[in-house]
Amino acid sequence: MHTARRAFLHLGIGAAAMLAVQHRAGAQTYPERPVRIIVGFPASGQIDIIARLIGQWLSDRLGQQFFIDDRPGAASNVATEALIRAPADGYTLFLANDTNAVNATLYDNLRFDFVRDTAPIASINLIPLVLYVHPSFPAKTVAEVITYAKDNPGKLNIAAPAKGTGPAMAAELFKITAGIDVVLVRYRGDAQVVTDLLGGQVQVAFGGISPILPHFRAGKLRALGVAGAARSAALPDIPPIADTLPGFEASGWCGLVAPRNTPVRIVEKLHDEINAGLADPNVSARLTDAGVTTLALSQADFGKFVVNETEKWAKVIHAANLRPD
Fold this sequence. Notes:
Elements: H1 2-29, E1 35-39, H2 46-62, E2 66-70, H3 77-84, E3 92-97, H4 98-106, H5 114-117, E4 118-127, E5 129-133, H6 142-151, E6 157-160, H7 166-178, E7 183-186, H8 190-198, E8 204-208, H9 209-217, E9 222-226, E10 252-259, H10 264-279, H11 281-289, E11 293-294, H12 299-320
Parallel strand pairs: 1-2, 1-3, 6-7, 6-8
Antiparallel strand pairs: 3-10, 4-10, 4-11, 5-8, 5-9
Helix pairs in contact: 2-10, 4-12, 7-12
């Protein structure tokens, strides 16, 4: 009996050792076939462009194609679930973004927990946002916008795209942090926000810097404050909103994740290659041209970053009593 038990244990140990060797070998030779990067937004958008830049870098470095699989729908929840249901073998990845941190609380019927069910690989970028106004609006600073709103409760209109988007959440955070009574005017997308602001139909908006920069330079719109923690290279003369509202920060972001339990060596290999890309002047310049700022964090810090973002937006969603559109 004891002999049989010892034989069984030896077989188990031997099998485990063999699996460990195969696991290490698989990670060392990864990738052996094309890798899919799922994106939760349409082709040609900013998120898709970032995914293609990183995918091309990884393809060139690792000798296999990293192809982009755009799966828009349900505020990227369709794409996220496709990632989570995929095998944890490193051949299906996902370009996560700030929407995932918001959706974790905004949607109460998700069939997954983003933080629990994904493995953070590498942060890639921040997407700077800016508070801007029509030139006819009297406020010249963030503090003056707040004063105007407090002197005219319920009369200031702030354009906000669909709930859960970066600019919309920045507007909600601004409203709560400043303690002001304003009307958030909902739009389907950023393009219509810019059109109506240029036409004077709304007074104030949050948006990405890159799409609106030409209007700033032409004097058709006025930037008052950037929503990131520091000044933006694209608008070096514009102070952070945090100078007026300490602690205020609302930036979009992107980073690569994999299904939970993806082999650690594969995750580490991808992390190192992506960080090498972010340090490459050509890749960095192309990301800047796409309107974003590189963000190179350790795996652990990227994981903490996602948790912190999820917790921050959960508080805003509960305070504003937001529900999906």
